[in-house]
């Protein structure tokens, strides 16, 4: 490669088109249209998100310094992003110092290639997996399968999803869209040797999964994990989980391969004190998660004796290059924003078409994978999949201003999109509204027409496209006889305001009379 | 106090009663309401739909119309428009305007209030002397609640209204599903959100659902009207402007007429 300086650095690459799980097949409105009909999904989501919302509010409300913890989390993450390259190199040095090997993967395809090669080198054709967003994002399991390696998901919900050949719909509760009867059917069909009389009692289902997984923990020599945090100062990696399956994967096998998005690095060991409070309280509504595993390279005679860390970019540097959008990299994947999102609650996770659903997914996915990679790229619909209600911003433990990021991405989209009917309409509307005379003329012109369409009951029940979606479920009131400004300029307006002033003066003069009214 | 009234394009054109009520209320409280005649629109719809170049003249127009230092405060009967002025105008001005515009925006943003903020924080009143003898439930719109952080100010104002039967709205802080062009672009999801909101409103048995934003009320009201519910929507200003001398009359609904 030439080392000549070529001027401006190229825009860093996004996750390559057609790889991994960062783009759905349909736009959000189209996908949501189908998902909204799924009563099971809506019921489960409603119940689950509400329960977890309440729990989260209880355990965040009880901390007197919760807001300051959020500030600290945001500050540490922002500092991290500002000096990401130096921190990553420090992390690499420390991991190597402690006997690990570090690999740099530009994108998902490279990461898949690296992990598969490492597995093949061990001679095993099986791996056990800790629930991980990063490997989900790059489609590692599918890639491994293509090379004859079977990956076993060991998180209960991930296992359900995997056995059903399904996709996760929630960051934390991947099988949130399934009920226990469905889980029973999935287990009966897919777990080898399972009791054919298995019922849908949750404890029995968990026992069936446990028996199946236990055998894998004992026999499979390679594990693949993600990481919640990677500490630059010490080279320590961390996984935070609830079921203990992670602990098994991280300690039992001979070889551990961890795939970590480069934004997961933290500068200091001490920073964990902030994040180990923020994460469990925001995600599961627990004060502390049951299992927190920390490991630093290799410890002779204890745990995996071969450790590989794969640092994954896959569009993260591209996101980092965006002055505004980079804030999304601060995300610690707690899923609080999903659980409070009214759009997610109705449409469900699959409608986003990405490993990252919900509010954060709507900003992160387009940044990692782009939103103009093809004509009518489904990702370009994601920033619009929000009513901008702001509940996500309030819930986010690292204070990511998701609504502002959505607005920014919408802007980036309209800047890149070709001239559309909408763009022309927006231009036309602005040019009318910036000329007060034209604006008032337009107001007057719209009135009679609107009233005519509305008819005697003074409401409009059917509008033409693209507004027909509105009138499918809502009426529009007929325009009033007079605009406010016309009223104000009228005799009636003047008289009304005079009367109000007089009434006010009367009450001010005789306040007691008013009190006795 | 000399108060500049921004009618908002939606209020001026489609919901003048809410703007009238704002003017009447402030006048009754002894303030001088001025209406800069060249005002049009804050540009919120443009920005929220992804257009930031187009609204530059709107942002400029707003700053020019209300920049006049003799206007001590600017009020608008809309939480989302106030939110746009306070949070978005600067972004637009800094990106596509010039330094002079950014300065003008900063000056006008500092004196811009949504109605309940103006009343409680600036004018220091919660009892505005209103009378409204109906059952009312209040929907705190998202932008009032989470962008402007008006908190319980609207409720304190409503509590002080004589004769009112104020009932709590279940899941009040949930979005009604409007979201500007969201309601059109994602009509199905928006409808699902609206249905839940309408169900919660109806469960209160209220005569009136009120809020501080005509756009959300248009959405909720449109849903109520479609199912011919007996509950109507009125802007908070209309309730606060209502007195024994000049009471607000409830709009007819099809259910009530039946
Ligand atoms: S954006 Fe914030 S709330 Fe959402 S998953 Fe990430 S850290 Fe959690």
UniProtKB/TrEMBL annotation, chain A:
Keywords, sorted A to Z: 4Fe-4S, Electron transport, Iron, Iron-sulfur, Metal-binding, Repeat, Transport
In this chain, the stretch annotated as Disordered covers 1-25, 464-483, 489-517
MF GO annotations:
4 iron, 4 sulfur cluster binding; metal ion binding
Give the top-rank taxon of the lineage listed in the UniProt record for this protein: Bacteria
Q: Which stretches make up the 4Fe-4S ferredoxin-type domain?
A: 328-400
What are the LUD domain coordinates in residue numbering?
A: 88-298
Question: Is the keyword Amino-acid biosynthesis in the record?
Answer: no
Q: Where is the signal peptide?
A: none
One Pfam family hit: LUD_dom
Q: Which residues form the Lactate utilization protein B C-terminal domain?
A: 415-491
BP terms from Gene Ontology? lactate metabolic process
Q: Quote the biased-composition stretches of kind Basic and acidic residues, using this chain's numbering.
A: 500-517
Q: What is this protein called?
A: (4Fe-4S) protein
What's the source species for this entry? Streptomyces toyocaensis
From TrEMBL, chain B:
What domain of life is recorded for the organism?
Answer: Bacteria
- A single GO cellular-component term on record: cytosol
One example GO MF annotation:
oxidoreductase activity
Positions of the Cysteine-rich domain: 4-85, 136-220
User: Which InterPro entries has this protein been placed in?
Assistant: Cys_rich_dom (IPR004017)
Q: Name one Pfam family in it.
A: CCG
Protein name (record): Fe-S osidoreductase
Q: Which organism is it from?
A: Streptomyces toyocaensis
């Amino acid at each position: 490669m030439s080392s000549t300086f070529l001027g401006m650095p190229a825009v860093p690459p996004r996750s390559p088109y057609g790889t991994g799980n960062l783009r759905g097949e349909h736009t959000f409105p189209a996908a949501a249209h189908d998902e909204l009909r799924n009563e099971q999904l809506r019921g489960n989501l409603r119940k689950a998100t509400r329960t977890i919302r309440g729990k989260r509010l209880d355990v965040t409300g009880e901390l007197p310094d919760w807001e300051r913890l959020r500030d600290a989390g945001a500050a540490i993450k922002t500092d991290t992003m500002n000096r990401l390259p130096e921190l990553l190199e420090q992390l690499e040095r420390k991991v190597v110092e402690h006997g690990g090997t570090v690999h740099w993967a530009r994108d998902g395809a490279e990461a898949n290639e690296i992990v598969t090669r490492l597995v093949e080198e061990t001679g095993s054709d099986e791996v056990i997996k800790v629930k991980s967003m990063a490997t989900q994002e790059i489609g590692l399991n599918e890639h491994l399968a293509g090379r004859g390696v079977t990956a076993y998901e060991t998180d209960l919900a991930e296992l359900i999803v995997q056995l059903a050949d399904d996709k996760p719909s929630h960051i934390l509760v991947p099988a949130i869209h399934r009920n226990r009867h469905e889980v029973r059917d999935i287990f009966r069909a897919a777990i080898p040797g399972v009791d054919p009389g298995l019922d849908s009692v949750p404890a029995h289902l968990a026992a069936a999964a446990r028996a199946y997984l236990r055998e894998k923990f004992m026999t499979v020599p390679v594990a693949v994990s993600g990481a919640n945090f990677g500490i630059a100062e010490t080279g320590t990696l961390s996984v935070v989980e609830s079921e203990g399956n992670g602990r098994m994967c991280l300690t039992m096998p001979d070889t551990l391969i961890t795939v970590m998005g480069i934004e997961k690095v933290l500068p200091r060991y001490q920073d964990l004190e902030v994040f180990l409070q923020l994460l469990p309280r925001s995600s599961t509504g627990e004060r502390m998660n049951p299992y927190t595993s920390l490991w630093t390279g290799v410890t002779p005679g204890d745990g995996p004796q071969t450790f590989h860390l794969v640092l994954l970019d896959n569009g993260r540097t591209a996101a980092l290059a965006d002055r505004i959008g980079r804030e999304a990299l601060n995300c610690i994947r707690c899923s609080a924003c999903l659980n409070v999102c009214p759009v997610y609650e109705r449409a469900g996770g699959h409608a986003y078409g990405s490993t990252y659903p919900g509010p954060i997914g709507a900003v992160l996915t387009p940044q990692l994978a782009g939103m103009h990679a093809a004509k009518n790229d489904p990702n370009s619909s994601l920033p619009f999949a929000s009513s901008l209600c702001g509940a996500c911003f309030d819930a986010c433990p690292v204070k990511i201003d998701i609504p502002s990021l959505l607005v920014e991405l919408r802007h980036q989209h309209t800047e890149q999109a070709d001239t559309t009917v909408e763009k022309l309409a927006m231009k036309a509307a602005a040019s009318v509204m910036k000329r007060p005379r034209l604006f008032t003329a337009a107001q007057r012109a719209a009135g009679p027409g609107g009233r005519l369409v509305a008819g005697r009951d003074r409401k409009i029940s059917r509008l033409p496209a693209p507004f027909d979606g509105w009138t499918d479920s809502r009426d529009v009131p007929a325009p009033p006889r007079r605009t406010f400004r016309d009223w104000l300029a009228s005799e009636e307006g003047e008289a009304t305001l005079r009367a109000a002033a007089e009434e006010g003066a009367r009450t001010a003069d005789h306040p007691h009379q008013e009190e006795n009214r | 106090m000399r108060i500049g009234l921004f009618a908002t394009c939606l209020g001026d054109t489609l919901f003048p009663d809410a703007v009238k009520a704002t003017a009447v209320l402030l006048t009754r409280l002894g303030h001088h309401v001025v209406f800069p005649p060249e005002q049009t629109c804050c540009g919120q719809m443009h920005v929220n739909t992804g257009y930031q170049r187009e609204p530059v003249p709107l942002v400029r127009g707003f700053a020019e119309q209300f920049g006049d230092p003799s206007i001590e405060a600017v009020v608008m009967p809309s939480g989302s428009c106030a939110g746009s002025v306070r949070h978005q105008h600067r972004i637009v001005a800094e990106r596509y305007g010039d330094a002079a515009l950014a300065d003008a925006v900063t000056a006008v943003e500092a004196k811009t209030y949504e109605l309940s903020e103006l009343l409680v924080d600036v004018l220091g009143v919660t009892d505005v002397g209103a009378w409204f003898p109906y059952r009312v439930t209040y929907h705190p719109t998202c932008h009032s609640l989470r962008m402007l952080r008006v908190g319980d100010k609207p409720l304190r104002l409503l509590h002080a209204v004589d004769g009112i039967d104020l009932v709590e709205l279940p899941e009040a802080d949930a979005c009604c599903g409007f979201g500007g062009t969201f309601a059109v672009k994602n009509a199905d999801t928006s409808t699902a959100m609206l249905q839940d909101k309408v169900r919660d409103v109806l469960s209160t048995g209220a005569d009136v659902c009120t809020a501080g934003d005509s756009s959300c009320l248009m959405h909720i009201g449109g849903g109520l009207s479609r199912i011919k519910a007996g509950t109507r929507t009125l802007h908070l200003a209309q309730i606060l402007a209502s007195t024994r001398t000049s009471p607000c009359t409830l709009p007819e609904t099809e259910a009530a007429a039946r």
